[in-house]
Amino acid sequence: MATSGPRGQYAKTPQRRQEILEAAIEVFAASGYRGGSLREIADRVGMSLAGLLHHFSSKSELLSGVLTLRDEVAIRDFGSMEGPGEERVRNYLRLIIGNESERGLAELYCILSAEATAPDHPAHDYFIQRYEFVSGLMYPAFADLAAQGKLRPGVDPKQATIDLIAITDGIQLQWLLRPNVNQMGESVRRYLESVTTLEF
Amino acid sequence: MATSGPRGQYAKTPQRRQEILEAAIEVFAASGYRGGSLREIADRVGMSLAGLLHHFSSKSELLSGVLTLRDEVAIRDFGSMEGPGEERVRNYLRLIIGNESERGLAELYCILSAEATAPDHPAHDYFIQRYEFVSGLMYPAFADLAAQGKLRPGVDPKQATIDLIAITDGIQLQWLLRPNVNQMGESVRRYLESVTTLEF
DNA sequence: GTCTATAGGGGGATAGAC
DNA sequence: GTCTATCCCCCTATAGAC
């Protein structure tokens, strides 16, 4: 066993793995997990199906790789996880507005989360945990705003967390179906202004 | 040509068609259009694949049948399309609350609408038109409420229409993934109370 | 109206050469 | 690390008997 440095389990060809993951994101975004095929992903990256399966030993493992990669990027983009409530909600809105220029990413989460409502879907547990993660990030933010008197009267932090996530997911679906009709950030901004006394 | 009575184009075995459509709803709800198979639908209704294809000549035609059937039911359930704004938003909320006891239906629309964001999906145009239909139903309701001074200051009827649909779709997805966490009607009710001066 | 049989394609995954 | 060849499964759809 070599020392667990950069030549560990996944040191074979990090670059190749990255290419495969990016192609997989495109294909899964367009056709979902069920509808997307490993052959098409392999074609896009210019290799054979068997070659791809050398790097990811099964379709579901490739999906795991995609989700892990996206989590790393998203967590980095979000910025601080420790700041005050106001900073977090502003970071959230900034992230949603940023997604307006990444249609493929919105497509990916839209189709995967819908597929993953089926209990036997390989990403079922992932999406449940993802909701818990986002809730666990935003609920304290709203609770902090409440403590500072920055929530409007009658607004419950727990409900606000649920509804913020709902309007985010819903506007994303709507944006994908009718790209011309609205901008995602506007709906999320309106929602945040409707539950807080802040301006965004 | 017979007179266009009950023995028209689709009079062969209306009951058989109905059974097939109901099985198709279950299968498409669980696995989506791409993931659902005609064989499984045929099995559920206790007939062969070829037998099924005698009633619906292709998979996409079966999907059309499902969507048409659901539209008929939904339009009937919604009630009056002509009443004042207040009645319409109340009908909308009532419909959403009613859906809480029809999980299969929520699953169906959730997965099909996500799949249908792909331009080549057989239900792509259907879901675009569906958004236009619902918008065309609810925008006049909010506009009427605005004219009666029943919208809160700063609320735009057009934006309210978009956000109402967004929160509805989003809370549905969330409900499917974590059924224990919330009730769909509550989020929609909260939204309606946040944009109007009415009580629900 | 329903069936069996079959065509014809695409899917994920493995074996083994290089 | 990448390939070709192959296995076996499931898919939609059609042909034709009953």
Which terms summarize this structure?
200 residues; mainly alpha; Tetracycline Repressor, domain 2; disordered N terminus; DNA-binding
Under CATH, the homologous superfamily of chain A reads: Tetracycline Repressor, domain 2
CATH class of chain A: Mainly Alpha
Q: Number of domains in the coordinates of chain A?
A: 1
Instruction: Report the average pLDDT across residues of chain A.
Output: 93
SS-derived structural category of chain A: mainly alpha
Distance between the termini of chain A: 54 Å
**Biggest β-sheet strands, sense, barrel of chain A:** none
Identify the CATH architecture of chain A.
Answer: Orthogonal Bundle
Question: Can you tell me about this structure?
Answer:
The structure is a homodimer of 200-residue chains. The first copy, chain A, has a single domain, classed as Tetracycline Repressor, domain 2 (Orthogonal Bundle). Chain A has helices at 14-35, 38-45, 49-55, 59-78, 85-99, 103-115, 124-147, 157-177, 184-195. The first copy, chain A, is mainly alpha-helical and 200 residues long. Residues 1-10 of chain A have low confidence and may be disordered. Chain A has 9 helices and no strands. Chain A starts with 13 loop residues before the first helix and ends in a 5-residue tail after the last helix. Chain A is elongated, with a radius of gyration of 19 Å. Chains A and B meet through helix 1, helix 6, helix 7, helix 8 and helix 9 of A and helix 1, helix 6, helix 7, helix 8 and helix 9 of B.
Short description:
The structure is a homodimer of 200-residue chains. By secondary structure, chain A is mainly α.
